[in-house]
């Protein structure tokens, strides 16, 4: 457990740093670009993020499951080569769809977004897809610290790029997206040298393989509804709120959700570390540590939620300025959903490690669909408050599904012994 917590602390430190850099970059670009420029950057990055979410097909998580069944890593080179190939194919398909949407109707989905800025934004797509795959492979090899180092380096380069390209050279929205692209390249490609070297050490070459391709796509078909469902209850509310009530309420709501993301760093780090344990020991072998961490982290997050609620009026205005005081109350209410977020995050390695792709996808997509329907119903009536109601209800509901999974893992672990 000490080594687990050491890895969690290392990963949490990297994530905290990256998150703080992200919040700082948000504040900096808002001041340098103004509301319209910041809105264009947010819109383009959200579009690219959506394309990445739909395009990567959850193949990284499926790769973790494949690695769990190959503890000697004899197929690692073929797995790596197949994921590199899929990155290229899925990127080209994403670019084709984006170009088709823009060519068909320039004043449609991308209305008001400069063509050059859009182009730079979509250049980021392959690196966003590969980050999903590369980080999964590093997690499976229990080399998450390698990913952490490059994550810190990439985010640092990104904020430095904003200072130079936007603040000094005055390149505006284009400069902000160029800075983001530079950082993403470092984060995505930082560990690829180690992965290639590891494959060669195992006597395999990084060649695509038909069997691996079929296995990855078969698992991705089962699992990818999970990613789509996650998008529905993490990002759809922002788009709906912006559509019905404009940028101001959206800005307050986004600030609250970003701060929740900061609090979720420890559960996310624990999940990344547990993936490595599941790969090495199997889901039943890793379950005792997984269960202890779930209990410890859930109790810790409850305490942290109470502290955050008390400090929110001071902390948010110190971080973002007095203009963001309206974000305080939404943040305090949304803390009620933190237990559900923790359960979903810490239990994810068990869902994936056991190969419960359809079940995980079905639960997440169902919860995401409920959230989407609730947002379409509540946001037009109550604005940001409606989005908060939908958020809390969704994550409290998710506790039931993941609680059932806890019981199932406990039973399976006892039978395995």
Features:
417 residues; mainly alpha; 2 domains; 15 helices
Structural class: mainly alpha
Contiguous low-pLDDT stretches (5 residues minimum) are none
Taking the sheet with the most strands, its summary is:
none
- Helix-strand string: HHHHHHHHHHHHHHH
Count of DSSP-assigned helices:
15
Helix-residue proportion: over 70%
What's the gyration radius in Å? 21 Å
Whole-number average pLDDT? 83
* Range of strand content: under 5%
Cα separation of the termini: 20 Å
Number of strands: 0
Number of spatially distinct domains? 2
- What general outline do the C-alpha atoms trace? globular
Describe the structure.
With 417 residues, this protein is mostly helical. The chain has 2 domains: 1-208, no CATH class; 223-417, no CATH class. The chain has helices at 2-55, 59-68, 76-104, 115-123, 125-140, 144-168, 172-189, 192-201, 210-234, 236-263, 265-320, 328-334, 338-353, 357-382, 384-416. α1 packs across α6 (144-168). It is globular. The two termini are 20 Å apart. The relative contact order is 0.12.
